Amino acid sequence: MYRLIYHLETGAVDKTLKLHVCTSCIVCYNVLVGRNKVMPLMLISACLVGIKCRYDGKSQCNKLACKLVQEGRAIPVCPEQLGGLSTPRVPCEIKGTDGKAVLQGLAKVVSKDGEDVTSSFVLGAMETLKLADLAGIKQAILKDNSPSCGSRMIHDGSFTGSKKPGMGVTAALLEGKGILILTERDL
């Protein structure tokens, strides 16, 4: 598989470097060759690229997000699935302030039927961070309003559709580790 290599100084494109790309060696995206470097890789919420992983079994496909994945510049990830939750699943919201409080043990993530799913959300966030560390990722585009991925707004915990400012569990963990968090509105 060939990936575009962008020259850091001139912006020229070199298609001659062959890179082996697979899920077990995703770090190969960050190979340096002389003054050529593969464009920075980022994480992106899988639901934004057409993967049906939302709680309702649907996606919210964004054309620009899809283009980033097609160009090899983004890795799709669903923290809720990485945490062991099924798709579809009962809607979940943060009871308490936000994802930062969940990570501190001061708030919980609960499903609409009252089940405490905090451990699944924390596990999914930690697995997402492992992937980011493995690939040297410094930024992520995450689906806002999500109890995992929301970075500006999340649902308020009442299951009425009301939202409040705050971060989801994964967004809070990644941001706390220095990863720049963007939303689909930033595309």
Give an account of the 3D structure.
By secondary structure, the chain is of the alpha/beta class. Helices cover 23% and strands 21% of the residues. It is built from 5 helices and 12 strands. The strands form 4 sheets. Strands 2-1-4-3 form a 4-stranded antiparallel beta sheet, with no helix packed on it. A hairpin with a 7-residue loop joins β10 and β11. It is globular, with a radius of gyration of 17 Å. The N terminus is likely disordered.
Question: Distance N terminus to C terminus?
Answer: 26 Å
Tally the helices: what do you get?
5
Tell me the overall shape.
Answer: globular
Main β-sheet, spatial strand arrangement: 2-1-4-3
How many DSSP-defined strands?
Answer: 12
Rg, Å, rounded: 17 Å
Helix content: 10-25%
Which residue ranges are poorly predicted, with pLDDT under 50 across at least 5 consecutive positions?
A: 1-37
| Beta-strand fraction estimate | 15-25%
Strand count, sense and barrel status of the largest sheet are: 4 strands, antiparallel
- Mean residue pLDDT: 84
Q: What letter string, H or E per element, gives the SSE order?
A: EEEEEHEHEHEHEEEHE
Task: Decide which structural class fits the backbone.
Answer: alpha/beta
